[in-house]
TrEMBL record:
CMP/dCMP-type deaminase domain boundaries: 1-117
Matching Gene3D superfamilies: Cytidine Deaminase, domain 2 (3.40.140.10), Dihydrofolate Reductase, subunit A (3.40.430.10)
Gene: ribD
Entry protein name: Riboflavin biosynthesis protein RibD
Species of origin: Nocardioides euryhalodurans
Substrates-to-products reaction catalysed: 5-amino-6-(5-phospho-D-ribitylamino)uracil + NADP(+) = 5-amino-6-(5-phospho-D-ribosylamino)uracil + NADPH + H(+); 2,5-diamino-6-hydroxy-4-(5-phosphoribosylamino)-pyrimidine + H2O + H(+) = 5-amino-6-(5-phospho-D-ribosylamino)uracil + NH4(+)
GO MF assignments: 5-amino-6-(5-phosphoribosylamino)uracil reductase activity; diaminohydroxyphosphoribosylaminopyrimidine deaminase activity; zinc ion binding
Binding site for Zn(2+): 45, 70, 79
Length: 334
């Protein structure tokens, strides 16, 4: 199963809408006969990829899979049926599949006489597909709010300048996190004022082949020459201010992980609606004393009502050549 998880985590697989899955086919003596992983929408599922690798040797073998084999016919056939047809004797999977369209693989396998065991390294499998699992179980995308701030909580100086609160190392790290999501979300004011491109870029600042959907929230009309409307990624403008409406629309489009990089007003709206699941803060070792706050007014007037965020990770991003060092603090509510 550890090897299957390694296969599932193979770099380069586009984020969403399908989960990352790995599979290893084992012979009676425990030797690997074949292995495979899912490479994205429209490609062979991990089980089918592994069965192709094993060939006829798969008959009578054991399939070790990170996710319960699907029971759904979409762009590809149901993996449960493929395993039965290949003569697999036993299936061991980590995480159960509760998605309404794909669930039921275990019942199909057992009805065909296949021995099925579940739950091996289930938590590791859930962690691998954290956003997908959350979306399936909650009916909306997982939301990560990212922001950069000074020690005194400012995202921009009094004159509006904000380049650069975050260090080069922090910006590179941000692109890594962007690449793990399938939506980049900002408000219309951010587009009008800052003109971001909202793409995932490499070390030499070139956009990568697979890009998240760029989403702009707000009712105002925007100039068509804004960089977010270029041809380097798909862009959707949602003319609403309702965070729940935004997430419902994105979930209906098969999106599972929103990377919220909007300004303080949009962040406050999502926080007030209790729709932020993870916070990633890049803290710079500087003080401004005045300027734009990282988040707008949340209506909190007493310390007892403060929003508490459990810290999941703290990481120092070391600067180079005299560049400031930033600290990345990750907090998760679920």
């Amino acid at each position: 199963m550890r090897r299957a998880l390694e296969l599932a985590a193979t770099p380069g697989v586009p984020a969403g809408p399908n989960p990352r899955v790995g599979c290893v086919i084992l012979g009676a003596d425990g030797a690997a006969l074949g292995e495979g992983f899912h490479r994205g929408t429209g490609t062979a599922h991990a089980e089918v990829d592994a069965l192709r690798s094993a060939g006829e040797d798969a008959r009578g073998a054991t399939a070790v899979v990170t996710l319960e084999p699907c029971n759904h016919t979409g762009r590809t056939g149901p993996c449960a049926r493929a395993l039965v047809d290949a003569g697999i004797r036993r299936v061991v999977f980590a995480q159960g599949d509760t998605s309404p369209v794909a669930a039921g693989g275990t019942a199909t396998l057992r009805a065909a006489g296949v021995e099925v065991e579940s739950g091996l390294m289930a938590e590791e499998a859930r962690a691998l597909n954290r956003a997908w699992t959350f979306a399936v179980e909650h009916g909306r995308p997982y939301v990560t709010w990212k922001f950069a701030t000074t020690l005194d909580g400012r995202s921009a100086a009094a004159d509006g300048t904000s380049r650069w609160v975050s260090s080069r190392a922090a910006r590179r790290d941000t692109h890594r996190l962007r690449g793990e999501c399938d939506v980049m979300l900002v408000g219309s004011n951010t587009v009008a004022v800052d003109d971001p491109e909202l793409t995932v870029r490499d070390e030499v600042d070139e956009p990568l082949p697979h890009q998240p959907l760029r989403v702009v929230v707000g009712e105002r009309d925007l100039p068509t020459d804004r960089r977010v409307f270029n041809d380097r990624a798909e862009t959707l403008q949602l003319r609403t201010h309702d965070p729940r409406e935004v997430l419902d629309e994105l979930f209906a489009r098969g999106r599972q992980h929103v990377f919220l990089e909007g300004g303080p007003t949009l962040a406050a709206a999502f926080l007030a609606a209790d729709l932020v699941d993870e916070v990633v803060a890049y803290v710079a070792p500087m003080l401004l004393g005045a300027g734009r706050a990282a988040v707008a007014d949340l209506g909190i007037t007493t310390i007892a009502d403060a929003v508490h965020l459990p810290v999941a990770d703290v990481h120092v991003l070391q600067g180079h050549d005299g560049e400031d060092t930033n600290v990345r603090v990750t907090m998760r509510r679920s």
